[in-house]
């Protein structure tokens, strides 16, 4: 294992026998029962991505139904109760069950590949996180079918969500499932941090890390700092509802604003938790499709880190109309306006990278350019609502709905679809159709703007959010009809990508290992990667290892790892010098059983506190089985 | 990895994070401190607590920037690239620390300005 070029470089030859043995070592068992035992990072990452896109589809259908209800005045397609459930579910599922998990999924799949290792630091924890997420999502959607769905909005404000105003199980389901998804996000974050800091390929010092890996690292730290706040707040709320504590109840000395503080202390960084990985995807795509090093690597890393920490000082701007002291709020106005600086630095670095470059306008690049147009508009309205007088005027109107859809769909979903086109050949080994991709982009781009741009005007005309209908005299009918037509076009655009994806798996052109000519390590693996990711762990000497290899026609690798057990190289945090070898655990059913046991406790507690005790012992039992030690004398 | 050397310059890896941590730490203190002290300022009818918070945390963030600036100097004051082995990486960490602390100082100044214009009792 060496970092520098050895004095006498020797060729590495791989016997087929050894490769087959490595393949067996990292193999994931087949069959239905085998499916529940998988722990390899690519399996789990792929499941996160697919599951999240299914939730995107379901929540998107809810969004279309909401738009159909609002298409004309005084429609009765959805009643007020169902409408409340739908917009609550649309927001909750899009934010918690689509946006965060899909970003985690891409990070889980690609971070180990980009840093040149064979799996993540804690593979079984990874599997546990996925099952917790899956069970949480199924229960949440099941509650909709049972008419038990939450209906107090995605931020679930008290006192509306207290027992007095929201009897029934809806809000209980919300608080419980939110805790679920937070647990899942925390496991992914811990994994990603340790994998990024300790398992990078030798030579990949921090200043050579791919920008997507930086973004995933910042996202993970943000999850670690933000998620506990919402776990605390939803626990306090469920205590208020179940055992009659008084945290949020004014008569008992509680404080409803405490909920808003805790929720938005999480909720604002949450927006950036979704945005930051998308920024990494954009940089990655720009590098590949301009085929030259990015302008301002250090500045881009700085912006991502700065956005990460400044985003924790903005939360009160969601509370400008709650009657807090003006001076206190003004601090948050200042921070809200200042976050435009790192965001601007990013945009200018990208423009400089694109300037004068020979850009290949392939589908991933189109989605990124679409991001520029949409995100800049969303950013501008963001600076507008950072100002308290303007915010007071448009608070709780469709202007806000327009603003955050511009930021979230433009800022996260467009780059995400671009990244899906970009990495699809690596995940499936097949190319998606370029022609269909371009159709999909233009339909989505036009549909998006037709849907959400009129909402700015509707908001300025005073149309409030969260109303299930409006009277004809208000004059909001035409623009609402336009928005609904736009939403159908937007859905068609995304639908084309869905069909393209499914079609390509069976009929798509087979992909080379590096079809786009990209410089980062994930493209050094096969398409799709073998079970062990890399036949040999690579050694890197710059930010663009694949371009180096292409130029030098040789590559350095780590040798000496055993092929008969799951070994990976551990490296130092700053310089990525090799410091040791870690043996990773094999597939097992226990993370799944453990997730089921934990879910029993979480769900059961809605109905009776005894489930907490039962689940506690069940989980303890499964953890013992999970952590049963490897037998060192058998050397496996 | 007790220390990482560069031509006689010994910098413990943890020391290289100082600019990354001190600046944002100072800014977080300023934001929370100021927010909590608004009601106190209203009761006392004087703004010196708020101005003091701004001044102290501003000095702290500038200290973070200064530490990072010195580290950068010791590793050779050129813009960090991806080569140069350890020296390049020390430069990268130092420049990042410097800019992060500088941005924190800017945030503290921006948040300190309203103290001169707004009444804490409104």
Automatic annotation (TrEMBL), chain A:
EC numbers, comma separated: 7.1.1.9
GO MF, one example: oxidoreductase activity
Keywords carried by this UniProt record: Cell membrane, Copper, Electron transport, Heme, Iron, Membrane, Metal-binding, Oxidoreductase, Respiratory chain, Translocase, Transmembrane, Transmembrane helix, Transport
Gene3D superfamilies hit by this protein: Cytochrome c oxidase-like, subunit I domain (1.20.210.10)
Enzyme class, UniProt record, top EC level: translocase
Location(s), subcellular: Cell membrane
PROSITE patterns assigned: COX1, COX1_CUB
CDD domains: Ubiquinol_Oxidase_I (cd01662)
Entry's transmembrane regions: 48-70, 90-115, 127-149, 169-190, 211-239, 271-290, 297-317, 329-354, 366-390, 402-424, 436-459, 479-503, 602-628
Coiled-coil blocks: none
UniProt-listed InterPro entries: Cyt_c_oxase-like_su1_dom, Cyt_c_oxase-like_su1_sf, Cyt_C_Oxase_1, Cyt_c_Oxase_su1_BS, Cyt_c_oxidase_su1_bac
Pathway: Energy metabolism; oxidative phosphorylation
Membrane topology of the entry: Multi-pass membrane protein
Domain Cytochrome oxidase subunit I profile as annotated: residue spans: 35-541
Catalytic reactions on record: 4 Fe(II)-[cytochrome c] + O2 + 8 H(+)(in) = 4 Fe(III)-[cytochrome c] + 2 H2O + 4 H(+)(out)
Any Pfam family matching the protein: COX1
Described purpose of this protein according to its UniProt entry: Cytochrome c oxidase is the component of the respiratory chain that catalyzes the reduction of oxygen to water. Subunits 1-3 form the functional core of the enzyme complex. CO I is the catalytic subunit of the enzyme. Electrons originating in cytochrome c are transferred via the copper A center of subunit 2 and heme A of subunit 1 to the bimetallic center formed by heme A3 and copper B.
Family the UniProt entry places it in: Belongs to the heme-copper respiratory oxidase family.
Protein name per UniProt: Cytochrome c oxidase subunit 1
Protein species of origin: Billgrantia bachuensis
The organism's taxonomic lineage, starting at the top: Bacteria, Pseudomonadati, Pseudomonadota, Gammaproteobacteria, Oceanospirillales
Automatic annotation (TrEMBL), chain B:
Domain of life where this protein originates: Bacteria
Segments passing through the bilayer: 9-28, 48-69, 90-110
UniProt key word Transmembrane: yes
Alphabetically ordered keywords of this record: Membrane, Transmembrane, Transmembrane helix
Protein name stated in the entry: Uncharacterized protein
């Amino acid at each position: 294992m060496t970092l520098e070029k050895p004095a006498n470089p020797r060729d590495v030859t791989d016997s087929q026998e050894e490769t087959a043995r490595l393949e067996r070592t990292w193999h994931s068992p087949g069959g239905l029962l085998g499916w529940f035992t998988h722990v390899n990072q690519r399996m789990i990452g792929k499941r996160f991505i697919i599951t999240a896109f299914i939730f995107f589809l379901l929540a998107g259908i809810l969004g279309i139904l909401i738009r159909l209800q609002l298409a004309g005045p005084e429609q009765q397609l959805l009643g007020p109760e169902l409408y409340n459930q739908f917009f609550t579910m649309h927001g909750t599922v899009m934010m918690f069950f689509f946006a965060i998990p899909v970003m985690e999924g891409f990070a889980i799949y690609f971070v180990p590949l980009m840093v040149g290792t064979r799996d993540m630091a804690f593979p079984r924890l990874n599997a546990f996180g996925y099952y917790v997420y899956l069970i949480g999502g199924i229960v949440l959607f099941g509650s909709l079918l049972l008419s038990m769905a939450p209906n107090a909005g995605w931020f679930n404000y008290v006192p509306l969500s207290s027992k007095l105003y929201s009897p029934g199980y809806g809000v209980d389901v919300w608080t419980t499932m939110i805790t679920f998804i937070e647990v899942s996000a925390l496991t992914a974050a811990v994994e990603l941090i340790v994998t990024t800091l300790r398992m990078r390929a030798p030579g990949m010092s921090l200043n050579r890390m791919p920008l997507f890996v930086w973004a995933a690292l910042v996202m993970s730290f943000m999850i670690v700092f933000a998620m506990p706040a919402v776990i605390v707040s939803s626990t306090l709320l469920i205590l208020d509802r179940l055992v009659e504590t008084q945290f949020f109840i004014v008569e008992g000395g509680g404080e409803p604003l405490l909920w808003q503080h805790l929720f938005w202390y999480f909720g604002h960084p949450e927006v950036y938790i979704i945005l930051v990985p998308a920024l990494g995807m954009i940089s990655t795509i720009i590098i590949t499709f301009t085929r030259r090093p990015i302008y301002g690597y250090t500045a881009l890393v700085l912006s991502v880190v700065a956005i990460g920490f400044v985003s924790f000082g903005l939360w009160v701007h969601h509370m400008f109309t709650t009657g807090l002291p003006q001076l206190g709020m003004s601090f948050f106005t200042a921070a809200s306006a200042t976050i435009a600086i790192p965001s601007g630095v990013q945009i200018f670095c990208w423009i400089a990278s694109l300037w004068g470059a020979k850009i290949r306008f392939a589908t991933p690049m189109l989605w990124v350019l679409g991001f520029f147009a949409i995100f800049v508009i969303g950013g501008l309205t963001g600076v507008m609502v950072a100002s308290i007088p303007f915010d007071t005027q448009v608070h709780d109107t469709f202007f806000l709905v327009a603003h955050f859809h511009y930021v979230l769909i433009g800022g996260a979903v467009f780059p995400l679809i671009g990244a899906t086109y970009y990495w699809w050949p690596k995940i499936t080994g097949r190319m998606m159709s370029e022609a269909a991709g371009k159709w999909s982009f233009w339909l989505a781009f036009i549909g998006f703007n037709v849907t959400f741009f009129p909402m700015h005007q509707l908001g300025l005309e005073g149309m409030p959010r969260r109303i299930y209908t409006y009277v004809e005299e208000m004059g909001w009918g035409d623009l609402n009809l336009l928005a609904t037509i736009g939403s159908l076009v937007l859905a068609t655009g995304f639908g084309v990508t869905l069909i393209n994806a499914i079609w390509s798996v069976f009929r798509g052109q087979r992909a080379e290992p590096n079809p786009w000519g990209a410089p980062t390590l994930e493209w050094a693996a096969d398409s799709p990667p073998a079970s062990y990711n890399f036949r040999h762990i690579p050694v890197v000497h710059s930010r663009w290892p694949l371009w180096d290899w292409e130029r030098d026609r040789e590559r350095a690798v780590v040798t000496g790892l055993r092929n008969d057990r799951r070994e990976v190289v551990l490296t130092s945090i700053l310089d990525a010098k090799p410091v040791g070898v870690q043996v990773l655990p094999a597939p097992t059913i226990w993370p799944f059983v453990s997730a089921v046991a934990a879910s029993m406790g979480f769900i059961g507690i809605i109905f009776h506190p005894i489930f907490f005790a039962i689940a506690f012992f069940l989980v303890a039992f499964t953890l013992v089985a999970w952590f049963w030690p490897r037998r060192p004398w058998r050397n496996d | 990895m007790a220390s990482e050397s560069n031509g006689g310059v010994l910098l413990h890896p943890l020391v290289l994070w100082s600019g990354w941590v001190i600046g944002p730490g100072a800014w977080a203190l300023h934001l929370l401190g100021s927010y909590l002290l608004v009601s106190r300022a209203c009761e006392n009818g004087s703004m010196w607590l708020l101005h003091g918070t701004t001044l102290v945390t501003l000095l702290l963030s500038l200290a973070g920037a200064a530490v990072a600036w010195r580290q950068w100097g010791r590793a050779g004051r050129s813009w960090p690239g991806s080569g140069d082995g350890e020296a390049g990486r020390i430069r990268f960490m130092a420049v990042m620390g410097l800019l992060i602390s500088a941005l924190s100082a800017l945030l503290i100044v921006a948040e300190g300005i309203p103290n001169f214009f707004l009444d804490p009792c409104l």
